[in-house]
Design brief:
Length: 218
């Protein structure tokens, strides 16, 4: 179980919040096995993830919803997904421009995530990041609880990809069920697809069947 902090207010972010949220997300995601795999050069990581999240925050604000806390110590980028999203070639160019010579690995992650994505309407948590200085203090749980309140009112399922066991366990405490892990390459870092189903008679629906077009890497 989890405890929601009463001293944190969650609200929808605006473009004025981007200068404060950008370093929060860049720092939160520029450490760990995924960052080391995506950007092997340590000296480049902060710059690359800053460019990446400048682009992702812009997308979230225009096409999805970005939640943040009143102290701007964390952010969550959500999207509503129908069965199959329309193709967007501009996204590939934007991602390449944001990540430079490291774009091939970011594009590979995008392709893997899309191939495994459930093909039914749901809310998609693309990113959740917390300032490393205040991690493990309930900021992530506050962001999740706020979003889930609205989703539960609609009885809408949610989906995400957890990038490490610690995050996977956090999401499990918030009602997500983990599927079989996926890897961008045979030596790449594992990600766990996670599903928070609809409530039917007090019981959440189980993980949807795997996308038949997904193939595990060899």
């Amino acid at each position: 179980m989890f405890t929601t902090r009463a001293d944190l207010t969650v609200r929808q972010a605006t473009p004025d919040d981007v200068p404060a949220l950008l370093p929060v997300l860049a720092q939160a995601f520029s450490t760990g096995t995924v960052a080391e795999w995506a950007v092997p050069e340590t000296a480049d990581r902060t710059e690359v993830f800053t460019g990446y999240f400048r682009y992702m925050l812009a997308l979230g604000l225009s096409d999805g919803r970005v939640d943040t806390t009143d102290d701007l110590s964390g952010a969550a980028i959500w999207y509503r997904r129908d069965e199959t999203p329309p193709p967007d070639s501009d996204h590939l160019y934007g991602l390449e421009e944001a990540t430079g010579r490291y774009a091939p690995k970011f594009l590979l992650l995008d392709a893997m995530f899309e191939a495994r994505h459930p093909r039914l309407p749901h809310a998609y948590l693309a990113y959740l990041g917390v300032d490393p200085a205040v991690q493990s203090r309930g900021v992530g749980s506050a962001l999740l609880a706020h979003a889930h309140e609205g989703l539960d009112a609609e009885n809408l399922p949610a989906y995400l990809e957890a990038s490490n066991p610690r995050n996977r366990d956090l999401y499990a405490r918030h009602g997500y069920e983990a599927g079989l892990p996926m890897q961008p390459t045979s030596s790449g870092p594992p990600f766990w697809p996670m599903w928070r189903g609809q409530l039917n008679g007090g019981v959440r629906s189980s993980f949807p069947p795997p996308n038949p077009y997904y193939r595990r890497p060899r």
